[in-house]
RNA sequence: CGGGACAUGGCUCAGUCUGGUAGAGCACAGCGUUCGGGACGCUGGGGUCGCAGGUUCAAAUCCUGCUGUCCCGACCA
């Protein structure tokens, strides 16, 4: 009977990280598999998290002058064909609509009928169709800049999917802007990357490194791609947001032209930038532990769960009344720009009830029983602490300190994640050491190993490709923040270089 | 798209080798006892064994094909 379970999630991160990820998604009630290949059902607990992300990001975008709009899900094939690199980049993963009607087939089933004259591509991204609109909207430099964002779903027919990290359909926002000068467009590209970095660090409590992609890792059709990279607990890198300077590539293919102040006809300079439901995957892999998810308070689906302890039926009414009043008082409080979200769970399912909320990652669990009511105090546990660590506060003190406690959790999660990244970020100059760093002890079932290596790179695509081929390690970014600039050998070919880049295995 | 593993109730799995009418634990529903860290008893509901063929008196079990899932690659947010 004494089944001793040490962790709520099996296996642990250490035992089998990919499997732990699958299990935590299930146990935390964020999402589940759908009948559709590669697509997920985002459940209310997960969607609330997304809604919070949307709300905060949307405000941040608007604060920079961006306005929302919506463009079609379907993109004419001919649009996609306009930009050569773009086609090449996305052609392999496009879902294509070819018919517009279903008819009864011979075997009683439905078969597509009514072939379209031009196939429609389900948007993998919207540069081309938004470019078409921009071309109509822009005729003079006075029309610029155009600053647009859309919240949408996109489809990329992936070969291998992982819930939240890579699904065939996902939710995201894509910002698209057009400017009169390259400088202004480049500035916007950087600005939006900064928005992502601020959002991910301050709300998701995920430390990121801002940098520039190498040419081989650029968005198809971009002149320059900027990104934020985060380290997950298995020490692999996750790209958490990207911002692209598209030069005049899409302006030329879509015909976004304007007359300048000096009466010259010029092509506009465009940018695009996006962040997706993948951020939820990043949040899970940054903060989750072997007991389940841990949600940073500022983005959490809910902040507090109240768990009434009812020993006798006769106590029920008084306990529930007290709990209801505490909930009301908490809901008056504003934290991180929104009112506290409080759940009350009075199900009679024993200790399993508390564990469910641990797995769901709610920041604070409160137990309210007759003893607490008698003392007018609140007995609570923080999700960022050990599950048996609980403290008691007088109710007025709890109400007064709740924001402070949530802030502590938020700060603690960020500090922990930053610590992990620091502990596994190294400067490697020697090639043998580099190889050892990225080679698992057990190649059959690789253990958690490696991390971020700040190593010199000569700048050649060959060295990049060779490293990827040999070790499955790629250059995640060329960080904006320059390290020590002394010249030394490229970690791959030995040619001199003063540029350190982040090498890592990636999602 | 290559290489491997797997597919039996909501979940985890047994049963497959050796063919003979579908099982367990957990979860779920009802009742009672419980409740401050993964409760217990009784009762009950729920599965055309991934799909399609084939062999056979008889298929979860043997054979063929397909589909899906997971892991490892290639590709990508």
Quick structural summary:
This protein has 507 residues and is of the alpha+beta class.
Mean pLDDT score, rounded? Answer: 92
The biggest beta sheet is recorded as: 11 strands, mixed
In helices, the fraction of residues equals 25-40%
Low-confidence stretches: 1-5
Structure description:
The protein is an alpha+beta fold. It folds into three domains: 17-287, BirA Bifunctional Protein, domain 2; 304-421, Rossmann fold; 425-504, C-terminal domain of ProRS (Translation Initiation Factor IF3). Helices cover 34% and strands 27% of the residues. It contains 14 helices and 27 strands. Strands 3-7-8-14-11-10-9-24-27-23-22 form an eleven-stranded mixed beta sheet, sandwiched between helices. It has a five-stranded mixed beta sheet with strand order 18-15-19-20-21, with helices on both faces. The structure holds one RNA strand of 77 nucleotides.
Keywords:
alpha+beta; BirA Bifunctional Protein, domain 2; Translation Initiation Factor IF3; 3 domains; 5-stranded mixed β-sheet; disordered N terminus; RNA-binding
Summarize the SSE layout with pairings.
Elements: H1 17-27, E1 31-33, E2 40-42, H2 44-63, E3 67-68, E4 74-76, H3 77-80, H4 84-90, E5 96-104, E6 110-122, H5 127-137, E7 146-155, E8 169-179, H6 182-202, E9 209-212, E10 224-231, E11 237-245, H7 249-254, E12 257-259, E13 265-267, E14 269-276, H8 278-287, E15 304-308, H9 313-332, E16 334-335, E17 338-339, E18 342-344, H10 352-360, E19 364-368, H11 370-375, E20 377-382, E21 391-394, H12 395-423, E22 425-427, H13 431-437, E23 452-456, H14 461-471, E24 474-479, E25 488-489, E26 496-497, E27 500-504
Parallel strand pairs: 3-7, 15-18, 15-19, 22-23
Antiparallel strand pairs: 1-2, 4-6, 5-6, 7-8, 8-14, 9-10, 9-24, 10-11, 11-14, 12-13, 16-17, 19-20, 20-21, 23-27, 24-27, 25-26
Helix pairs in contact: 2-6
This protein binds one RNA strand of 77 nucleotides through residues 1, 3, 5, 8, 18-19, 22, 26, 33, 37, 89-90, 92-93, 125, 154, 156, 158-160, 165-166, 170, 172, 219, 227, 238-242, 274-278, 307, 309-312, 348-356, 367, 369, 371-372, 379, 381, 387-388, 390, 444-446, 472, 507.
């Amino acid at each position: 009977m004494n089944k001793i379970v040490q962790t709520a999630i099996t296996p642990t991160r250490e035992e089998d990280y990919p499997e732990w990820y699958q299990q935590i998604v299930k146990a935390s009630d964020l999402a589940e598999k759908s009948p559709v290949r590669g697509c997920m059902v985002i459940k209310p607990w997960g969607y609330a998290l997304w809604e919070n992300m949307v709300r905060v990001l949307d405000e941040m975008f608007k604060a920079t002058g961006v306005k929302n709009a919506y463009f079609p899900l379907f993109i004419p094939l001919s649009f996609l064909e306009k930009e050569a690199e773009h086609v090449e980049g996305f052609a392999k993963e496009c879902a294509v609509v070819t018919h517009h009607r279903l008819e009864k087939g011979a075997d009683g089933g439905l078969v597509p009928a009514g072939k379209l004259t031009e196939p429609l591509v389900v948007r993998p991204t919207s540069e081309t169709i938004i470019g078409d609109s921009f071309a109509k909207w822009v005729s003079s430099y006075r029309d610029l800049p155009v600053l647009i964002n859309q919240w949408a779903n996109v489809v990329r027919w992936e070969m291998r999917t992982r819930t939240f990290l890579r699904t065939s359909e996902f939710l995201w926002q894509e910002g698209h802007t057009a400017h009169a000068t390259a400088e202004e467009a480049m500035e916007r590209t950087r600005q939006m990357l900064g928005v992502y970095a601020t959002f991910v660090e301050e709300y998701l409590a995920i430390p990121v490194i801002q940098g520039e992609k190498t040419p081989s890792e650029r968005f198809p059709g971009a002149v320059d791609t900027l990104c934020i990279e985060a380290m997950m607990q298995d020490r692999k890198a996750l790209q958490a947001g990207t911002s692209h300077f598209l030069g005049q590539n899409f302006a030329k293919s879509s015909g976004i032209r304007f007359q300048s102040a000096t009466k010259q006809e010029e092509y506009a300079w465009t940018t695009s930038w996006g962040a997706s439901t993948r951020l939820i995957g990043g949040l899970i892999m940054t903060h989750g532990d072997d007991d389940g998810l841990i949600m940073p308070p500022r983005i959490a689906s809910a902040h507090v769960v109240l768990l009434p302890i009812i020993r006798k039926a006769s106590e029920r009414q008084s306990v529930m009344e007290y709990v209801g009043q505490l909930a009301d008082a908490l809901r008056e409080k504003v934290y991180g720009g929104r009112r506290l979200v409080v759940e009350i769970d009075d199900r009679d399912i024993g200790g399993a009830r508390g564990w469910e909320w641990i797995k769901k990652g709610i920041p604070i669990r409160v137990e309210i029983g007759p003893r607490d009511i008698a003392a007018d105090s609140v007995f609570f546990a923080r999700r960022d602490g050990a599950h048996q660590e609980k403290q008691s506060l007088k109710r007025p003190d709890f109400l007064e300190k709740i924001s402070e406690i949530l802030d502590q959790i938020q700060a603690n999660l960020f500090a922990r994640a930053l610590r992990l990244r620091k502990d596994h970020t190294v400067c490697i100059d020697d090639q043998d050491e580099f190889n050892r760093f990225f080679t698992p002890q057990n190649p059959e079932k690789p253990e958690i190993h490696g991390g971020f290596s700040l190593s010199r790179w000569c700048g050649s695509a060959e060295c990049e490709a060779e490293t990827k081929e040999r070790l499955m390690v790629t250059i995640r970014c060329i960080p904006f923040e320059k390290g020590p600039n002394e010249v030394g050998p490229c970690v791959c070919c030995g040619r001199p270089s003063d540029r350190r880049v982040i090498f890592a295995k990636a999602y």
